[in-house]
Amino acid sequence: MGMCKGSGGIKRVYDWDSLPEEGQEPNSRMDLFKNGELVESRCFGPDGRAIHARDYRDHGNPKRHPEVPHDHRYDWSKKPPRQPWESPDYKNFPPIPNLGAN
Ligand SMILES: [Zn+2]
Fold first, then answer.
1. What does residue 18 show for φ and ψ, rounded to 5 degrees?
2. How far apart are alpha carbons 14 and 37 in whole angstroms?
3. pTM of the predicted model, to two decimals?
């Protein structure tokens, strides 16, 4: 897994239902805001496919997502590639500055 730095650019999108999983700028990051609040950041690898996501919400399902924020990794050898939640990996996906969300 690569570092999530957003070196390929950072794109903010507003009130989309969800973020795309592929076809993005290499090594970029997208931040999804809903009602003005950051709900998810997603990082894309050199091939423009998602590698790592951070959710700032529990998807309305605190039982299944007891930890907020939490991360999901993408394993493109699996279907679906989005893997179950895990504790935030701040080493490979540092907290996003200036948003008060980490
Ligand atoms: Zn999640």
1. -160, 175
2. 9
3. 0.88
Task: List the beta bridge partners of residue 84.
Answer: none
Distance 8 CA to ligand 1 centre (A): 24
Q: Residues with beta carbon < 5 A to ion ligand 1? A: 55, 85
pLDDT tens string 3-50: 787 889 999 999 999 999 999 999 999 999 999 999 999 999 999 999
The residue ranges of every structural domain in the chain are 10-73
Compute the distance from residue 42 Cα to the ligand 1 centre, in Å: 11
CA distance 45 to 52: 9
Integer Cα distance of 49 and 64 in angstroms:
25
DSSP 99: S
Parallel/antiparallel/unpaired status of strands 70-73 and 50-55: antiparallel
